[in-house]
Amino acid sequence: MRPVYVAGVGSTTFGKHLDRNLRSLGGEAVAKALVDAGIDRREIEAGYCGNALGAMLQEETGVGQHVLWEVGMGGLPIVNVENACASGSTALHLGWQGVASGQYDAVVVFGVDKAVMPKGTPLKVGAAEMEVRLGDLFPGYFAMVAQKHMEAYGTTLEQQAKVSVKNHDNGCLNPYAEFKKPLTVEEVLASPMIADPITLFSCCPNSDGAAAAILCSEAVVRRLGKPRVRVAGSVLATGLYDNQRDFSHWEIEEKAVAKAYEQAGVGPGDLSLVEVHDAFSICEIVHYEGLGLCARGEGGRLIDEGATAIGGRIPVNASGGLLAKGHPIGASGLGQIAELTWQLRGEATGRQVEGARVALAQMMGGSKEADARACNIHILIAE
Amino acid sequence: MRPVYVAGVGSTTFGKHLDRNLRSLGGEAVAKALVDAGIDRREIEAGYCGNALGAMLQEETGVGQHVLWEVGMGGLPIVNVENACASGSTALHLGWQGVASGQYDAVVVFGVDKAVMPKGTPLKVGAAEMEVRLGDLFPGYFAMVAQKHMEAYGTTLEQQAKVSVKNHDNGCLNPYAEFKKPLTVEEVLASPMIADPITLFSCCPNSDGAAAAILCSEAVVRRLGKPRVRVAGSVLATGLYDNQRDFSHWEIEEKAVAKAYEQAGVGPGDLSLVEVHDAFSICEIVHYEGLGLCARGEGGRLIDEGATAIGGRIPVNASGGLLAKGHPIGASGLGQIAELTWQLRGEATGRQVEGARVALAQMMGGSKEADARACNIHILIAE
Predict the structure, then answer these.
(1) Fold match, A5-118+207-231 / A135-202+233-382
(2) Sign of CA dihedral B74, B78, B83, B88
(3) Which of A77, A361, B209, B350 is the most exposed place for a label (fewest CB within 10 A)?
(4) What average pLDDT does chain B have?
(5) What is the complex's ipTM, to 2 decimals?
(6) The Thiolase N-terminal domain covers which part of the protein (chains A, B) (predicted)?
């Protein structure tokens, strides 16, 4: 396996784009990534598209092909990938494999979704018969995770609320974010109860948006003369179906990150910043522990200490995360990569983590039956 | 890139399985492939699932994970792939890349769909806004292909009907086929008109079903002691958006097959048998030409001569093809691979092509806007 670099990234703003379709959003992200990389679109040898909801919500299949035609790209192999919230990060993993294995010198990976739905419509992602039709939806599942974490470690409602407050503060600094309004702990706690103990402002929104990255070999990134951001670790893992599992952590995440640290030759102490899948505020606390940013059970203390704020020891979700930046399902994984690339290049104006050199992105998605349907860890290093 | 082998295959029967879900069908195919290969499921390092309609028709996402949990497999990377009719063959292509690049020694690739729909429901695969909502559905598109081919080359209605007759004859010999009733040319021509000149018996059905293959390295196939069927060529191509294109052939197919022949070091004259995407009878005639089995415009003559029947010079769709074997959209590409593997191992009882040594599978899928959204060519060689 040879080194793979992020030559360029692009993103739409995340939020409500009721007047735009998947092609338009995806096309904007891809066009921006091509321009950012300074690469001719005809050099791109393969395309990988992450999309989770196109078929279900827009009756649209073949989204990747339609997006690339929108920017005048055809003839190259194109693969559409679905791994729920991890669709975009799975597309990234496949593109990384394509370049790392020497098959391609330059590929485009992108994610796009239109997830804004009429108020009250549940997000039907998962095993239809086993979960969705039984009412086992995301807020209920993550409420059980929160209850278990509170019982096992004494994690408090205030600590969970502080995650929301931090990420909404960060969202105010990010021009790509959906929500740009600060919140207080009191407001989070007083917002409508969705599934005890999860309140409305502890939930991420379902958003519209797209993000893209150009991946390439060392020779290509040298020629392009771009700052060198290397994909030093790329892991895709799937949860085990295990009805005796402990809801207070995700074993699959712990295994995946151990593998990614080994690939990249770094450990949690080397990280400058992290983006995680904070679909609900409790998730971020569990991910602190799963990624080794603190010991198991210490996640609540980490947010109390302010360690994960911009300027803290290990900033998490400087972008605002899913909670404030927004969550266009299949696009979110690549939204993280756009953010981390800007951070590693020192271009994240207003929310820049000073001296950022090693960054980690974590995404998880899918069924609640197992630990997770898919978990991706990516580690980026500025060279 | 190192050699990749098909260690085992499995398939459900294709047809109406109204009482079974995606997991059940997919699980049967995967379990059969594991048994056929004689490999322990714990040796499988990655899974690639082709599924086109799960989200749209069953509200099911993450199909690959659910199928593998059904047979007790978790923890490995799993990717869900959508490329319309070419979903299964795209999963195969990704799995081939995984083993060929040395990343994995053994993977499972599978396809599954439940495509049987209430009578009169159109198959909504394509660009929703540009095609489906405008009524540009498959029978209408392929009727234009037929009209153009008839005008350009004098291809007759009888020649098209003969494709249906041949494939239904073959279906009678295949225990996996949906239709096992012979048809006459007169019956095909007299069946209800769907889109002039395409009649009902010139159309494939939308079926339920699943098929799977275990791919592995040379070391693994040697240890398993299985007959050695090598994936000598694997190509995924995407059509160009080109509103001046000629409807009488698919340029993308011609480009893809040239690349596959080069990879495999064979030409059309070396082929023992072929499986093609005969969604409508005209397709098979155009594919004869596209794959180089005859010159452009000579496809009608090839069926007249009986060259593509079992026992002919170059049997095409000995399985019955999509027309008679059935078309469970995302599974069909791997259904072809199961059939060709059995043929190359001399196990296709009743429909065996004697001395089969080199086989080609062709699938195409997706939008009608371009030549095709996705086109796969695979070449298998018995060693």
Answers:
(1) yes
(2) negative
(3) B350
(4) 94
(5) 0.94
(6) 5-218
